[in-house]
Amino acid sequence: MPNAHHEPLHDTVVVIPARDEESEVLGSLESLAAQTHRPDLILVVVNNSTDDTERVAEEFASRPDVPPTQVLSLPHNPHKKAGALNHGLARLAHQAGSLAEAARFVLVMDADTSLHPEFVARARLVMESDSGLGGVSATCYGRGGLWRSTWQRYLAGMQIIEYGRYAHTRSRRGVHTMAGAGSFYRTEALQQLIAERGEVFWQHSGNLVEDYETTLALKESGWRVTANQYCVAYTDLMPRLRDLVRQRERWVRGTLDIMRQRGWTRHTRLSIVQYVLGLLGFTYSLGWIAVWVGQSVAQGSPAGDPLWLAILLAWSLFSALRVAPLGWKAMLVCASLLPELVFQLIRTYWMGMSLWRSYTSGAATWA
Q: What is the pTM for the complete model shown?
C-alpha cells in the first residue's frame, strides 16, 4: 500500500519490454515524448535482443528534449516478456522501497506500439475517477503500412477491420484482457499482486499471454479493470500469413492454457463461452453456405428462397454496420461477406490448432 505520509516518487512511469525492435522502438518512444501529460520516467528493458534495439533506445535517452529515460539490458532472460516487465518494475521499486511508493501509475506498452498524444492524460482521468480500478486498457487500432502485394494488402485490411470492430464492441466492464499494446495500471493494485504471489507478471515458461493472466490475477484480487475508447494505441500488423497465424496461435493457445489452468470461474466463464460460440458460429455459417451452394448446383442457378436471401441480406447489413466507425470502405468490404469469409477460414484454423495443441502437446514456450 502507498506510504500514508509521502507522495510517490513519480506520478507515471512507463515500462517497455523490447526484443529485436530496432525499427519500431523509436516510434514508440517518440509517441511518449509527444504526450500532453508526459511520463516522469521511461524504462526500456532490452530483452534478449540480437539487433540494435539498445543503441536506438540509448540515443533517444541521450536527447535533452525527451522524458527521463533509462535503458536496462537483459541479454539472458529465461522468463521472456514477463521477466522483462518484472525486471523493470523491480528496478523502479528499488528506487523508493516499494512499487507503490515509487509511482502512482505504471504504463506498460509494447515496443511496436504508438500512443495517441492524449493517452496518458486520459488514462489518468479514468483512474482518478474510480479508486477501485486496477487498470485501464488501451483501445487498439491496426497501423497500416506499405505492402508489396495484393494479398498483403488484404491481410492488413482484414486485421484493421478486426482491430476496429473489437475496439468498438468490447465490454467496458470486466474486460477480457488488458491490452499488451498499452495498459495503464494503478501501482497499489500491482503491489497487491507482489504481496500475494511475489511478482506482478507470472514468470512461467508456459505463460504465453502475460497480459491476460495478469488481468485475471487483478480481478481475482478484487480489482476491476476497464477499457476506454479514448485511450488509443496503434499497433503493427502482420504482413505475412505465416507471421499472422503464428502470432494468433500464441495468443489463443496461451489464453486457452490459462483458462484451463483457472477452470470455470466467474472471471473466465465469459471468455470460455465466447470461444465456444465463435467456433460454433463459424461451423454453422460454413454449413449454411454449403447447403446454399448445394441447392444452387442442383437447381442450375442461385438458390432463391426468400427467407435465405433475407437472412443473407440481414447478415450483410449487420456486418457493415459493425465497422461503420472505420468508414465506408470497411463497410463495403464487410457487406460483400466473401473477404471476411476467407479470413474466417484462416481464423478458424488458428483457433482449432490452438485448441488441439493446448490439449495434446507439451508445455508451450514464449518465442
A: 0.91
Residue 148 to residue 152: CA distance in whole angstroms: 7
> What does 78-115 look like in DSSP terms, one character per residue?
TTHHHHHHHHHHHHHHHTTSSHHHHEEEEEEE-TTEEE
Distance CA 106, CA 12 (A): 6
Q: Is 16 helix (H, G, I), strand (E, B) or coil?
A: strand
What confidence tier does 291 reach under pLDDT thresholds 50, 70, 90?
confident
Is the domain covering 10-239 a CATH 3.90.550.10 domain? yes
**Could you tell me the CA-to-CA distances from 19 to 112, 257, 271 in Å, in that order?**
10, 24, 29
13 in Cβ contact with 103 (< 8 Å): yes
CA distance 263 to 247: 24
Give the Å distances, CA to CA, from 268 to 4, 176, 262: 35, 8, 8
Provide CATH 3.90.550.10 ranges for the chain: 10-239
Alpha helix ranges (H) inside the chain: 25-33, 53-61, 80-94, 99-102, 119-128, 150-169, 187-197, 210-220, 241-262, 269-299, 306-321, 328-335, 338-360
Q: Report the chain's mean pLDDT, rounded to a whole number.
A: 90
d(CA 184, CA 180): 10
Other residues' Cβ atoms within 10 Å of the Cβ of residue 281 = 12
Pairing relationship of beta strands 224-236 and 113-115 according to DSSP bridges: antiparallel
CB 109 within 8 A of CB 115: yes
Output the nine-digit C-alpha cell for 96: 523508493
pLDDT digits (tens, 9 = 90+) for 233-279: 999 899 899 999 999 999 999 999 999 999 999 999 989 998 998 88
Residues 96 and 69: their CA atoms lie apart, in Å, by: 17
d(CA 78, CA 91): 18
Residues 6+ apart with CB under 8 A from 293: none
Question: In 3-state terms, what secondary structure has residue 235?
Answer: strand
Of residues 16, 175, 14, 134, the one with CA closest to residue 81: 16
